[in-house]
Amino acid sequence: NAGVTQTPKFQVLKTGQSMTLQCAQDMNHEYMSWYRQDPGMGLRLIHYSVGAGITDQGEVPNGYNVSRSTTEDFPLRLLSAAPSQTSVYFCASSYLPGTAGNTIYFGEGSWLTVV
Amino acid sequence: AQSVTQPDIHITVSEGASLELRCNYSYGATPYLFWYVQSPGQGLQLLLKYFSGDTLVQGIKGFEAEFKRSQSSFNLRKPSVHWSDAAEYFCAVGAGTDKLIFGTGTRLQVFP
Questions:
Q1: What whole-number distance in Å separates Cα of residue A77 and Cα of residue B41?
Q2: How far apart are CA A87 and CA A64, in angstroms?
Q3: Which residue of A has its CA nearest to B44?
Q4: Does A33 score more than 80 pLDDT?
Q5: A96 near B CB under 8 A
């Protein structure tokens, strides 16, 4: 079982560059989301999607873009990288979060450094 | 607004000692509550979850948590800690149908 797969695991960017973090899941989950993890701040929701063609903003969406053209894939785009975007990024998927008994599965993380 | 508070940033215990990690939440309705563990350089692994029913929830690796509605708490416990339990622990609340709100985490250090 692949579960939730994120690539790349590590990336260094220069300020102003753009890049895409890839996320794929093979569990046919409707719900996918991106979080960033920063020291002392826990995980903060960037963007989420409740199905193909539907995306919405989370707590910290600025500087990021997402799309959901298929159920399986949910890429996160950094439009013009800034040092403040240095973080660890986690992709997650599940059935709709309000579903009783639901479990959210996380990818292994992508460590991004912007210099 | 929904929120999760983990008041202890860092906890140190001796191997074999008991452990309790605190979690308090703020949410208007009956919450869905979770505990996740993150080992260094790794992703998050679900330890246990509460949705309804018995307020004492058993999880993996010998962990348990108790939901106390009157105290808005969901504390994580383990009777005897192992060195391999050293990690960061996150409490989270399912806020409606589309969000999982995390606490800021508690880092557990275990001394032999």
A1: 23
A2: 13
A3: A106
A4: yes
A5: yes
